[in-house]
Amino acid sequence: MLRVENLDVFYGDAQALDGVSLDIEEGAVVAIVGANGTGKTSLIRAIAGMLVPARGRVLYRATDIAGWPSHRVCNLGIGQVAEGRQIFPTLSVAENLDMGALLPRARSRRDESRKRVLSLFPVLAERAWQAAGTLSGGEQQMLAIGRCLMGAPELIMFDEPSLGLAPAVAHHLLGTIRDLNREGITCLLVEQNVALSLKLASRAYVLENGRVTLSGSGAELLADDRVRSAYLGL
Asked: Can you tell me the distance from the alpha carbon of 205 to that of 33, in angstroms, rounded to the nearest whole number?
C-alpha cells in the first residue's frame, strides 16, 4: 500500500532521516520504535507532505507522492493523528469534526462518517457544542482520531496517541486503533508504549539516529534482546 525508499530528510544542515526504507501492506499495523529524536515524527511528516525529502521516494499505491502538498496527500486517503492532538481549541467538538470532512473525498460521506465517529466515541456526542479546548486529554485524543476519521482515510498515521494520558485511557485508545484496523484501516503507529505497540503490530521497524537498524514482525522485535534491553527495560 505504501513504500518508503531511501528517504533523506533535513532540517537545515541537520539530517533527520538517512536512507530510510519501509513497507506498509494494506490492512497491516506497522509500528515504528525509537527513542525521542530518532526521526519518527519526521518520517510521518515526510509521508504526510509536511516535509519535502531531499532524496528518496514515497510510493502510495505505486504513485510517488514525495513532496506533494499535504492537502493532496490527505485527499488520497492518508490521514494523520498528530502528536499533541492539534485540535482547534476554540471551536466546538462538532465544528472540529466538520473540519475533518472538508476534503473532497470525504464530503459526500460526512453524515455517515459522523455517525461512525459518534458511535465509536459516544462522549463526543455528549460534548458536541462544548469548546474542544475544555475537554479532558483523553477526550481531546478521541476528538483528534474522530476528526481524522471524518476525512475517510484508508491509512492512518498515529503519532504518540497515548502521550500524557492515564494508563486506562491509553489502553482504551490503543484498543480503538486495533478495532479500526480490524475494520479495514491500515495503521502506522508511533507509540511510547513499545510493548503494546509491538503486540498490535504485524510488522515493526526500529529507528536509531534517523536510520532503520532493525525490522521484523512485532512478535520478533518483542522477543529481540536488543529491543527488550533498550526500550522495555528488560
From this structure: 6
Given a contact cutoff of 8 angstroms between Cβ atoms, the answer to whether 96 and 54 are in contact is no
Domain 1-77+154-234, CATH? 3.40.50.300
CB 81 within 8 A of CB 161: yes
> How far, in Å, CA of 160 to CA of 182, rounded?
20
Picking from 12-21, 52-61, 220-229, which range would have the lowest pLDDT averaged per residue?
220-229
Query: Which tens digits make up the pLDDT trace of 32-59?
Result: 998 888 999 999 999 999 999 999 999 9
Question: What does each C-alpha distance from 217 to 24, 32, 156, 184, 202 come to in angstroms?
Answer: 12, 11, 19, 19, 5
Question: Is a pLDDT exceeding 70 seen at residue 23?
Answer: yes
128-142 burial: b if 16+ Cβ within 10 Å, else e: eeeebeebeebbbbb
Q: Where are the domains of the chain?
A: 1-77+154-234, 85-152
The three cell numbers of residue 1 are 500500500
Nearest CA among 106, 98, 31 for reference residue 74: 106
Residue with cell 471524518: 150
Bridge partners of residue 214, in order along the sequence: 206
Tell the residue number behind the cell numbers 476534503, with chain if given.
103
The confidence score (pLDDT) of residue 167 equals 86
Q: Report the chain's C-alpha Rg in angstroms.
A: 17
